[in-house]
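Practice set, problem 2.
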Amino acid sequence: MKRACLAVAFLAASLSPGSAQAAEPTFSGEVAAILYENCAVCHREGASAPFKLTSYEDARKRGRLIQAVTAGGYMPPWHAEEGWGQFRNERRLTDQQIATLARWVDAGMPEGDPEQTPEPPQFASGWELGEPDLVVEMEQGYVVPAEGADIYRNFVAAVPTTEDKWIRAIEFRPGARAVMHHSLFKADTSGEARKLDAKDDEPGYSGMGGGVRGLIDLSGWAVGGNARVFPAESPLKLPAGSDFIFESHFHPSGKEEVERSAVAFYFADKPATRPSLTIQLPPLFGAGAGLDIPAGDSDFWVRESFTLPAAVDLYSVTPHAHYIGKDFRAWAELPDGQKVKLIRVPDWDFAWQNMYVYSSPVRLPEGATIHAEIQYDNSASNPRNPHSPPQRITWGEASTQEMAAITFHALPADNADESVIEAAFRELRRKHGKQAREQAESRKRTIQSGTTEDE
């Protein structure tokens, strides 16, 4: 009898929840928590992802897909390499979480006890950052045709404020994600943008930037991007009663779409106490960096450096290229020779362009040199190459052309050094502007001489 009791006890222990034999995860027990924490911000009603993951049925229908994209590292869409900077809100699954999802799918995707399923996260009004202080929407919808060249158009929307506001965060919502490449945000206090808008019956006016001087930069959004949060000491100024400008770039998708963008503002309680700086390497999105990539070249690099004339705190970093971008690297070399890794994106994906915010600002001293390198793969083996067979690709605004930039949002360590840093960077930008003009003239002469872009 004693031996029989021991056998029963052993059997019960072997089937207990903590044992190896009963280690199959369930949705309610393990899987829901992983999906809600890492995936639901995009995979929910009204957000950017094409399907929801906020219930057991949602997850069960997509189980095999979840297993494949998490095992392959494609999802969650976090492309910054570990060890190259520490960032807020990293969407990176652990090896254990990936294994748990795989085992759940292989076990038949059991639900577990529905009473034990955690509540899905709540997002006010569908916005990632909760209920906004103000939402501004395009005043009319714009029809993006099914076919044709890329479209650059600027849309004007009134800001209904009677006093200056300070933006601590901004979130963009395109109406037709399939055709939206990017939108840059500006404020106009002159009324000139609205005059341009009134010149024809179509919503907005054409051109990148549209030629209006004195616009105030309010950040922007690119495909795959999330809400942008600015330093607490350096919110952006939104002038009272100004016009908000959506400087938008569309690429037709084969289906006619109606775009009506909206932007949500989250305001700070007080004005900025520290000025902000933009350090973009190379400047001008690479217009003067010699972006002329031969067909078939799988190892083309653009490089730029900038030595700081005064100390700064790096707050965030945003890489940017188009389809054939491959590898982004940026690091700082300190005066004592020490190297500080700032970011690496080893597998660039045009469809996921994030602003990476450092967990804590990265202090770089006077004399530190920031280095940026960007690699391109214009070969037939690159599945993201927009041309088949590959073609020569030069700098340009179209999605099938290329750009190059690693953009840092920084604050001077001492407010008094703002002008010194800006003056030094202005010299670098001026040099690239001259190079951009020379390179454009060279390409123009090449075309006039009858040489094709592929030669």
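Problem 2, part (b): a different protein.
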Amino acid sequence: MLDAAYEAGIRYVDAARSYGRAEEFLASWLGARALAPDALTVGSKWGYRYTGAWSMSASVHETKDHTLAMFREQMPQTTALLGTHLDLYQVHSATLESGVLDDHAVLRALAELRDSGVAVGLTVSGPRQADAVRHALELGVDGVNPFSTVQATWNVLEPSVGPALEQARARGWGVLVKEALANGRLTDHGEGAARRALEMVATRHGVSIDQVALAAALGQPWADVVLSGAVTRSQLQSNLGALELALTEQDWDELASVSEAAADYWSRRGALPWR
């Protein structure tokens, strides 16, 4: 999959300490292909520990820990694998409730990492992700904000974070979009009104549903990177078709009609099976 993505021109790869052995797989591929650090941009994340033990039925798949001790533990683990290939290190799913955005010890450590040459970002999730983004924008450690990127969930079902991401982009931050396919709800596996609206747009253009959903994310003026999440070559090839799709005003109107209240969207997301 990494070979296929690289051959297709994709130059950003996203991993995390809690994505099983993702960093190990990525490090192995980088080494096997002898890719120079500047050949692509590598982002990873700290703040969660993988606990699923390779079982889809595990009661707990990952646990959150945004303490300084966790950062001090996971940062060396990441750099031991990715070394100079690591370009971006993100707080994994920063929320107002976790307190990480107000932990000055953590923020100072992140500022030191940024000063060493690794960009620092945060990912956000949940119905209050826009609040977390705006809070992060106003942070300062000794007068300097350690963050320069944000990764957020945006899709046609859950567009509420859009204005906050626009603010971040205007501030000069890089913006990465995750879950543009709403964890499969905006693909052929989806159902209901959203599926019907995307099918109408897809049929009009002669494309697939996933391409419409991804084109909507790519069409946001503040979006720098839209993550694919494809796990097969055929999925990747389909996703890449979104780069060639230009949505019309009629398309945008139809897609806007399927948005859900943020609380409803995240409640439904939380009920989706882990797979």
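Answer key, part (b): Strands lie at 12-14, 41-46, 48-50, 62-64, 86-91, 119-123, 149-153, 174-178, 225-226. The chain has a mean pLDDT of 95.
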